[in-house]
Amino acid sequence: MAEVDFNFSDYVEQRKGDGDKSRFGGAAYAYPADQKVLRTLERMTPVTLAVEATVRLWKNVAKSEILGTSVKVTEKQFPEIYKITADCSAKLEIAPPTVYIAPEVGVLNAHTLGTRDDSYVVLNGILVDHLSEDELKFVIGHECGHIQNNHVVYMTALYYLMYSANVFVRWIVQPAIMALQSWARRAEITCDRAGILCCGDLGEATSALIRLALGSQKLAEKINVDEYLKQLEESQEGVGRAAELFRSHPYLPKRVEALRKFATTYYYLSALDPEGDVDGTSLNSCDAEVSEILAIFRKD
User: Given CB 3.0 to 4.6 Å as the disulfide criterion, which of 86, 141, 203, 293 pairs with 195?
Assistant: First the structure.
């Protein structure tokens, strides 16, 4: 396993693209706006109240619901998924999370739920059926990224506020929902990076994202990615682009383009080939470009 060094000066050098090529610095890959907004959330009363309520809900109800309706992945139960999880965890240098396969049908989805000390990755069965091994590595690596970057309790709060809050009281929690959605769109970029670090293949990572969006195995195999990314500019036109403000994930063309930018960085390329002589862009310049891609309202 690669050595971890939390020395700040080494972290800065690595983000410049000039650090020790043999070093893989944990969450140094994180999209900075993710952590910046996360620190802001910790000071927002509506969010802190929602998080506190979520922790109580998780401990009292939600955890039991997962345990009672899903199948736990172990060395003897779905060993292939268990191994992928172990490999991703080793790559990101975190403890392997507990993974459950949920019976949800009709939707390709994955979640990481729980608290900082008690988190679970939940994959629905149809998702596993639709993905190749490397695509599954991307998805599980993405979820491990949420754990590594301390997203779990906030992702759980957003999940339950969006899908479990009674419709008559949802307007009360709307400020917390919108704040968490704004952060979650940035957090997804961080975790897409974790996913590609785990699967090590831009094509497989892109394919996984597109399968999740389309929900179709056959159509995902036939899609022209370059043609698809032309929708990126179209999504920035007109007042309809404001609808993204109410989403917890960026529009998919943005995620794919942001991932492509990350795949050209020195950090990613040196993680793939620690002993090689690689040449890539810095994470700082990548982050600046990604910020432009994610912008909902662009400056003329």
Answer: 141
Query: What CA–CA distance (Å, rounded) separates 159 from 216?
Result: 24
For 3-15, the pLDDT digits (tens) are 333 333 444 444 4
Q: Give the number of other Cβ atoms within 10 Å of residue 206's Cβ.
A: 25
What value does the mean pLDDT of the chain take? 81
Instruction: Quote the pTM value.
Output: 0.84
Query: What are the residue boundaries of the structural domains of the chain, listed by start?
Result: 8-294
The strands making up 110-115's β-sheet, listed across from edge to edge, are 71-72, 98-102, 118-124, 110-115
Please give the Cα distance from 44 to 132 (Å, whole number).
41
Helix (H, G, I), strand (E, B) or coil at 265: strand
Look up tokens 């020195």; give the residue.
266
Neighbours of 12 (CB within 10 A): 13
pLDDT at 238: 55
Report residue 47 CA to chain centroid gap.
20
**Where is average pLDDT lowest: 45-59, 60-74, 233-247, 278-292?**
233-247
How far, CA to CA in Å, does 77 sit from each of 83, 90, 189? Answer: 11, 20, 31
